[in-house]
Specification:
This protein is α+β, with helices and mostly antiparallel strands and 137 residues long. The strands form 2 sheets. A 3-stranded antiparallel beta sheet has the order 1-2-3, with no helix packed on it. The protein has a 3-stranded mixed beta sheet with strand order 4-5-6. α1 packs across α2.
Length: 137
Amino acid sequence: MDALYTAVATATHGREGRAVTSDGKVDVKLAPPVELGGNGEGTNPEQLFAAGYAACFGGALGLVGRKAKVDVSDAAVTAEVGIGKQGEGFGLKVTLRVELPDTVDRETGTRLVEAAHQVCPYSNATRGNIEVDLVVE
């Protein structure tokens, strides 16, 4: 694959440090959530992954919607990213909740969401590695 764009970010001190993109547009303090024994006074990798996946999936949904001539520009995607023990390490699971405009019937919406799941780079990267549930609301 030839990359059309490459994002660059550096994190220091793991989950208790800072993450900064090379252009400085993202600069966040990192902290484990309270549920994982942290103080919760910063963002965490799961939140960053959820935000990226939700935005990317929304873009993919827009693409397939335009191709199908269905306006999904008012759709909202919520990504829930869970982390838990998996074998000796940890694993992730994702639920994507897609709220479609009232003008899109359920059958069409479900078809578009499933098509977006085939197009989205995050979905392609996680396929077979992370459990991803699609919920059309």
